[in-house]
Amino acid sequence: MEARIARIESDIDHMKSDVAAIQLDIREFRGDMKAANESISELKQGLAEVRTAVVALDQKLDSKIDGVESKIDAVESKIDSKIDAKVSALESKLIKWIIGTVLATASVAFSLARFVHP
Question: What pLDDT digit, counting tens, does each position of 16-42 carry?
């Protein structure tokens, strides 16, 4: 019976040492968890700052894109007006040339007719 009691005492000593080791492990895990939670909160804060910066950049880009689009529209309207002016100028030159050519052709025709029918 004493052997059994000795064995039980020995097992209890092992259990005590195992429980002590488990308690140490739990303390280490708590420290690790605390450090992990702190890191997570720092990451959340950093992520919030990055999101704010991205929103600000998005707004800046939107305003710059709007500015570029308005400049492109202004240049497009200037080009359209210049093209319209050049087309009008070419039309008037063509009309002048056509009138001049018709008059010259008519003059040549009347001159030939005068020499052919005396």
Answer: 898 999 999 899 999 899 999 999 999
pLDDT digits (tens, 9 = 90+) for 40-53: 999 999 999 999 99
- CA torsion 39-40-46-49 (nearest 10°) is -150
Dihedral sign, Cα of residue 73, residue 75, residue 81, residue 84: negative
What's at 49, amino acid-wise? E
- The label of the residue with tokens 């025709």 reads 109
Nearest residue to 29 via CA among 37, 18, 19, 39: 37
Please write the tens of the pLDDT for every residue from 90-99: 999 999 999 9
- Look up residue 76 and give its two tokens: 């497009």
SS3 117: coil
What is the rounded CA–CA span in Å between residue 41 and residue 36? 9
Give the integer Cα–Cα distance in Å for 80 and 18.
89
Question: What whole-number distance in Å separates Cα of residue 91 and Cα of residue 108?
Answer: 25
> Largest Cα–Cα distance in the chain?
165
